[in-house]
Design brief:
0% strand; globular; 76% helix; 8 helices; Arp2/3 complex 21 kDa subunit ARPC3; mainly alpha
Length: 170
């Protein structure tokens, strides 16, 4: 039952990301994406290959239906999925991966969960902004876009975490 609830929430958040990508681009300084936290919250028991396929499909779907540059989200999101277990090990320790438990805010603390979200958001944004600018924007513009997007993305991701968490995780 918990698995179905997670996957329903995942699909709804994909739709929410489509809406965000299509209608909430108010400034060129903020690139808002909840995709990294969605990938971070995928249950640990999911096979890495399946996770990479899911990540690529999710990123490609968002690219195809919203932003126009086909493959940009997929390109930036796949390294997040690949590095997810490493981020979980660094932030929460080896026990989480060994026991195949999902991380929770209650058991791991808000500071640790926020650190994991910052790490995956930063990795996603570095790749996304670097590829999107393709050397046509200055470093200061890219750095400003990265910092603004990171702050807004982490705040929105913390709200998204409550949607993806099951009753036992809250």
């Amino acid at each position: 039952m918990k698995r179905n609830k997670f996957w329903k929430a995942y699909v709804l958040l994909l739709i929410a990301q489509l809406i965000i990508s299509n209608y909430f681009r108010f400034t060129p300084f903020v690139m808002l994406s909840i995709l990294p936290v969605m990938i971070l919250c995928v249950p640990v028991r999911v096979n890495r290959f399946v996770l990479l396929l899911l990540t690529f499909a999710s990123g490609l779907l968002i690219d195809w239906l919203s932003e126009g540059l086909l493959g940009l989200n997929a390109l930036a999101l796949v390294p997040v999925a690949y590095a997810r277990n490493s981020v979980l090990r660094v932030v929460f320790g080896n026990e989480l991966i060994a026991r195949k438990e999902d991380f929770t805010v209650n058991s791991n603390g808000l500071a640790s969960v926020t650190m994991a979200i910052v790490m995956v958001q930063a990795l996603f944004l570095i790749i996304y902004i670097w590829v999107d600018s393709a050397g046509t924007r200055t470093f200061l513009f890219n750095f400003g876009q990265f910092m603004a997007s990171l702050v807004v993305g982490v705040l929105v991701s913390l709200l998204t975490l409550n949607v993806l968490a099951t009753e036992t995780q809250r």
